[in-house]
Amino acid sequence: MLMLNHFQVLNDTWVSFPSWSEDSTFVSSKKTQYEEHIYRCEDERFELDVVLETNLATIRVLEAVQKKISRMSAEDQAKFRLDNTIGGSSEVIHRKAIQRIYGDKAPDIIDGLKTNPAVSVPIVLKRLKTKEEEWREAQRGFNKIWREQNEKYYLKSLDHQGINFKQNDTKVFRSKMLLNEIETLYDERQEQASEDNAAPPSGPHMTLTYEDSQILEDVAALIIHHVKRQSSIHKDDKYKIKQIIYHFIPDMLFARRGELSDVEEEEEEEAEPDEDGTKKHNGTTSTKSKLLFSHTAATQQKLSNCDDAYNLFYVNNNWYILLRLYQILCSRLLRIYAQAEKQIEEDAREREWEKNVLGLKREKNDSPAIQLRLKEPMDIDVEDYYSAFLEMVRDLLDGNMETSQYEDQLREMFTIHAYIAFTMDKLIQSIVRQLQHIVSDEICVQVTDLYLSECANKATGGSLSTQASRGSAESAYQRKAEQLMSDENCFKLLFQKSKGTVQLAVELLDTEEENSDGPVDTEVDDVPLLGCQMLSLSMFDSICTKFKKDLSFSKIKQCAIFFLRNLRRIRKCQRGQEMQMREAKETAKKSSEGGEDSKMECMFKLNSYKMVYVFKSEDYMYRRTAQLRAHQSHQRVSTRLHQRFQAWLDGWRKDHVTSDMAATTYKWLMGEAQEGLLPCRTVCEPKIIHYQNINKYKVTYSTTL
């Protein structure tokens, strides 16, 4: 019964056949080129094994037939015949083996084996054995080739992300891609606010995390290593870059500053005495005057010791791109470091298991694959993987290592987790280019100088508990930054430290741009060809007047000055135009009757169309329906605030005020406890203020002594 059950589940009908990736319509089953190569090697190995085993099976059958014939007499040999199985149990296997050797002559050979086996069997058997030896020799050569190819492509076949990662990651490093990323988030928030007919919410568009500050030292070492070998960067610029990497960025991230001792020693050696006895560095200022962030060291040292602190920095495009790339480099180095630590733990755990369970003590580079010579021993210990990785990155940056060798070595160490380090050299090169631009571009230098000047005003951060006291200074810092970066994006960077981790909140501010210094005269009919040109005020007014009657928006969709997301807003404005005009007339009438004039004053610059408000002139503006909404929600808001205050007061009174203290206070309030004061009488007058019952106490003093 057991044998019958086995026969019922045996698969003697279906045949396994390899399916190549181009034959499959499913993307998930798409194989990489390295996987296909290994699959083909295995398929070739399988086909050769089938050929050898088929030939060997035919040899065994014919050897048995030959032994049987040798025991026959001559008369019996002449009468002896073979059937279609040629002495075996299969009609196909032996026929295939003979056809593989004799080709087109195979039918004649098979017919000879069946009709005259005494003569044909020894000849065919000899030929089969000869081919067996040839194919076995070829198999040994093929096994060596297949082993080399499998060793070459095995780790690559496991790495599914590394193939396309390099191409896609190179695009991510581009400045345009990084700016488009946050600008897209900004546009989505603006569109969502316009659809909800509400003001755009404030807050960061992107939040980045720095989990480990110790990794900053390795990041700085790699960047400065590449900076030192750039002959195109001036020596003074290199020194400024080192200050940014060793001083400024660690200060922003509440980390320990790096050392500049090696730089100072180099400059002291190259310094030449002047006529008055002072030293100059190639005609530039002294080292002490070059220290850009020396006066911020004490403040940042205090913040680094606080558990909750923040730094505020308003930057332009180049600074944002630099810090974005810097964060990417930190996160990738941290992932490589974490993977190296994980592999150290796994190796130690495996050694401990072999020692306790198997009673073996395996030395380094003593794995079974190395003992069988299936794998070359590595010169790097597991404990040194991370330091070896950093050295490999330096060699790659210096051109002392090929990219293919670098990637293969990474795969040997970190297996499928190595792909994030394939573009490490491109990332560092992009960071160095941004640093070079920051220390040489005028706007970038002004952004840095503005930050240093605002540090003295305590507008660049501090403790979170005292953030409210710096509100006015930070607002002034923001206005100055927006004015400085009026021609490009202005980013608000907030570095916040909490529980040992640092988070960077990035917000793209809404600022007006100046695209030209003079008006551009253009005809209204040429509007679709304007592109990114600026329109004059009269030009824009005439265009809006022209399209007010075009409710189908057929021309507006082709006009270059309109966004499609604003079409619904234009329709809504057209529908409520009469209501707005009527309310405007009523407002003007009330203003004229009341004799109130607007205090807000502003000026327009005709060349740039920029509106500038006059200092100390202000007005309060509110939305058309703001008063109605405020009146409708006044009771609900007042009740909620009163309940919150009452709940807090009850909790505080429960913890800090006893019943005797409450009774004494009530007697004093009602004038029952004289305590040497003038005779008086307290009267309680209940009232309702802001929808809440309020007790108003009135004290009447007695005139008699």
Automatic annotation (TrEMBL):
Biological process annotations from GO: negative regulation of transcription by RNA polymerase II
Region of interest called Disordered, as start-end residue ranges on this chain: 189-208, 260-286
InterPro entries, A to Z: HDAC_interact_dom, Sin3-like, Sin3_C
A UniProt-annotated Pfam family: Sin3_corepress
Molecular function GO terms recorded: transcription corepressor activity
Gene, per the UniProt record: LOC107707868
Annotated protein name in UniProt: Paired amphipathic helix protein Sin3a-like
Biased composition (Acidic residues): 261-275
Domain Histone deacetylase interacting, chain residue ranges per copy: 5-79
Record organism: Sinocyclocheilus rhinocerous
A Gene Ontology cellular-component term: Sin3-type complex
